[in-house]
Amino acid sequence: MHKLQDTSTLSKPTIHLAHASTLDKLVWFLGVGLGSGLVPKAPGTMGSLAILLLYPVWLWLGFMPSLIAMIIMSIVGIYICGRTADIMQVHDDGRIVWDEFAGQSITLLPLIYLANLAWWWIFPAFILFRLFDVWKPFPIGWADQHVSGGLGIMLDDLIAGLMAMLVLIFMIYLLI
Known about the structure:
176 residues, mainly alpha, globular
């Protein structure tokens, strides 16, 4: 297997899917967040916004089914992100946003648990996740720099989601 090139969000090599299998095309489509990661600017932000559309579904399902779905999303995401990076031949291309789907969803867990909270709490949840995902304080930045493959793509966002969730819980505790 060849080494994947490493690029920033600003560098977007052309994606070649013409000869990809149907399964690879499906995995790629999931990896780019059902297309939400293909926007020209701020694909991670768009992926985080897109997954907020699932918030009513998470509320309807309830806490435990949502938690189980998020765990599955995270585990499957290791394969999805790793395979999408292989297909695109770029490690952690900014257009791969399945990791944002999982991390942002984790941040929503306290809101799902406390289902009677005002809807506007979704805004601090979104902002906190994006801050941690972009800022990358320890251990997020360490995971981003030292863990490779699909796990590396997913891990920094999962940690960002957990850290944002903890801050959100603290905010809810202080304000309610």
